[in-house]
Amino acid sequence: MKKIILTILSLLPLAVMAQDKFEISGNLPKAGSDKIAVLSYKNSQGKDKNDTAAVKNGKFTISGETAFGNRSYLVLLPVKKDTAKRNRQADFQVFYLEKGKYNVTGTDSMATAKITGAQAQTDFLLFNSKMDTLTAHYKVLTNRFLKARSAKDTAEMKRIQREGKPLGVRMNAAIDAFIFSHPDSYVTLDLVATEKAAVIDPKVFDPYYKSLSKRVMSSFTGQKLAARYAKAMQLSIGKTLDFTQTDDKGNEFKLSSLKGKYVLVDFWASWCAPCRAENPNLLKAYKTLKDKKFEIVGISLDETKAAWLKAVAADAMPWIQVSDLKGFKNDVAVRFGISAIPQNVLINPDGMIIAKNLRGEDVLSKLSEFIK
Asked: CA 162, CA 246: separation in Å to the nearest integer?
């Protein structure tokens, strides 16, 4: 009996792998036979992999094994590189790959071909159809903005930014509509991970996160998102916070040394324009509240000390500054899942987080609600 059970168990991984097989059949009749198709995807262990296939009379086939549904890329390349066409735009298309059969149909280009297959790709095509008009409008505005910036036409830049705001609202609304109507889609999972998780604030993020099905959350992307969420929850309201870092004078600083004070812990960097734009607001608040047991601790995600200290001096920041000069690999940032800045948290005299992401010209009034 024991031998039978072991035999059955030994066959299980093979059965699982067999279920995750895919096959891609391409037909681009005018592509000729001097091209290769390159597939970039995640294999069944979640590792990045590239597979290639020769294109013969416009046809090619690629098969392999994957797991879940993942964003992948199909590229059409010449067999011999033409050095004279170095700046030529890559001929590729993004699609979603999972177990099943796929068809790539077109003429001579991968970018304009139609890729059909399993459910994740069907979802992706549906999402793109709802976003196409909005995305096209966004590209037009972006090109206009780049031209205006090149010409240093600030009036035109401001006009474009005003036009862009309602477009941004419509784009976000379209993304939200897709997310909440397709909670069991790998496309939705990617949208939540890329569009909604830059700053994980439970009040804002939880409706998206908790709408995702168990099936998609068990995927490679889902597991990574769950890990980020768990880290971010350590910075949620009601949690206590402490850390140790080196300050700008080379001394060891421990956050708990400020116990008894209200402390705004601010994640920033010298190269972060939105962060630098917030510094005048923080300076105003600091000057007003510093005699009311209030302190600011800036955690810089810089990688060079010179750039960090130059920005501290330029923005006249008199508060405590710390950094380990590891960029986004800063020990504190990694510990709490900080992947976008600016971000900040306000802790009370007992070291407990009582507010998050206080920004803008009204940051002083927001802080004053807590600090009397």
From this structure: 42
Say yes or no: 87 and 53 in one domain. yes
Q: How many domains does the chain fold into?
A: 3
**Pair 267, 348 in one domain:** yes
Give pLDDT, residue 81.
73
Q: Alpha-carbon distance 271 to 42, whole Å? A: 33
Say yes or no: 98 and 184 in one domain: no
Query: Residue 52's domain spans which residues?
Result: 2-115
Phi, psi dihedral angles at 190 (to 5 degrees) = -65, -40
- Under DSSP, the state recorded for 270 is T
Q: What is the DSSP letter of 56?
A: B
Q: Are strands 353-356 and 343-347 parallel, antiparallel or unpaired?
A: antiparallel
| Overall average pLDDT of the 184-192 stretch | 98
Q: Report the distance separating Cα 205 and Cα 207, nearest Å.
A: 6
Beta bridge partners of 65: 21
Q: Are residues 227 and 263 in the same domain?
A: no
What residue type is assigned to position 177 of the chain?
A
**In the predicted model, what is the mean pLDDT of the chain?**
91
